[in-house]
Every structure is written in C-alpha cells, then in structure tokens.
Amino acid sequence: MRFTYYGHACFAVQIGQHHILFDPFITPNELARHIDIHQIPADYILVSHGHADHVADVAAIAKRTGATIVSNFEIIEWFQAQGFQKVHPMNHGGSWTFDFGRVKYVNAIHSSKLPDGANGGNPGGFVCQTAQGNFYYSGDTALTLDMQLIPRFARIDFAIFPIGDNFTMGYEDALVAAELVQTERVVGVHYDTFGYIKIDKEAARKAFQEAGRQLLLPAIGETIEM
C-alpha cells in the first residue's frame, strides 16, 4: 500500500491498481504550489466534510478522472446538483464494499458547511479495510471516546489524524487517539497550512516516540510505503 501526501489534509492511498484520494485541497494551498492536480490519479474521492479546505479540488479532479465521489448524503447531493453522477452517498455507521475494499463511515466531532453556505451534513471519518491492510482516517475531529469503537470494526494498521490543534486535535490528543484505536503508526495531517495550526514537528515526533508509537510527517508530494 502506497501513501502520498498532498498537503493539509489531502492524501492518496494506492491499493493495488486502485487510487483513493481524500479531501483534495491543493490549488489554494500555497505550501502545495508545486503539486499539479492534473497529474493526480483518482478512482475514488472520499470527502470527510464540507469545508472548503477539504473540497476545493474535488470537482476539477473528479471531472478529469471520472472518479466516484464518496461522502455523506448532503455533500453528495451538493455534487449531484453540479452535474456529478458518479457518486456514492453514506451516513454514520454505514458500510459499503467497493472494489478496493470495505469502507465504514464513522463519527467525527467538528462542523461542516459547504463553500457556498449549503448544509454539509455531519462530518465523519472512514475506516477502510483492504486486502493490503486496514487504516482509519478520522477527518477533522476532536478527540472522542467514539474512537474506542474502531478496533471492534477492524484491526488498524495505521491511522491518519489531524494534529494542528485549534480547529481539531493537537498532537497530544492524536496520541491518545492512537491508543484508543490501538495503532502504533499515525500519519499527521492538517497542520502548518495556516498560522492557527502551525506546530513544533520535532516536539510532536518526540511525544509519540516517548509513548512507543510512530508519528509520520511525510513532505508534501512524498510517497511512502505503509
């Protein structure tokens, strides 16, 4: 399984021949100005919630690639109103088996409003079970005890958590989240993009190391094997 980080909370996971892209926010992100969205492959685009910093490039990439957009019911309705028909709506607690694996849409504590002010539904995260391993992307969220339910659904090989604080968990809470979902490896996202979420990366890595866990902070554009 290959993981590619595209900045902020956007990343892709390649599972065999399938490319799954999450929360694409690239063209408005100054830190990701070297990333060309026209070169990003996508068979599916999974959207955790409706904020602009998670949906900015969904339409452009879906139109070019023909990717299926997967999100909550309200966000899918919003994209359908724009003419997108390759979509799959979900809601909290529901699961669906796609050709790359099984996805469960789980709770997140955050807010969700689409860029034009439309209702973005309730924010969520995704538990993905695949033949090459299982992972959990929490989406933007606070630390919540709901996370302790995740290991009941799947053994988590790695998790993707926001660590920038202020709008979401900071790295200290992300470390607790790793304990709740029983994973040793965390990929940190949603940090450094804006002034409110700049962090001390070395302090974050050290906190995880001292707790016997690993915090991965790939560079924007970097691909790592998971």
From TrEMBL:
<dbReference type="InterPro" id="IPR036866">
    <property type="entry name" value="RibonucZ/Hydroxyglut_hydro"/>
</dbReference>
<dbReference type="InterPro" id="IPR001279">
    <property type="entry name" value="Metallo-B-lactamas"/>
</dbReference>
<keyword id="KW-0378">Hydrolase</keyword>
<dbReference type="Pfam" id="PF13483">
    <property type="entry name" value="Lactamase_B_3"/>
</dbReference>
<feature type="domain" description="Metallo-beta-lactamase">
    <location>
        <begin position="7"/>
        <end position="190"/>
    </location>
</feature>
<dbReference type="GO" id="GO:0016787">
    <property type="term" value="F:hydrolase activity"/>
</dbReference>
<comment type="similarity">
    <text>Belongs to the UPF0173 family.</text>
</comment>
<dbReference type="InterPro" id="IPR050114">
    <property type="entry name" value="UPF0173_UPF0282_UlaG_hydrolase"/>
</dbReference>
<dbReference type="InterPro" id="IPR022877">
    <property type="entry name" value="UPF0173"/>
</dbReference>
<protein>
    <recommendedName>
        <fullName>UPF0173 metal-dependent hydrolase SAMN05660895_1781</fullName>
    </recommendedName>
</protein>
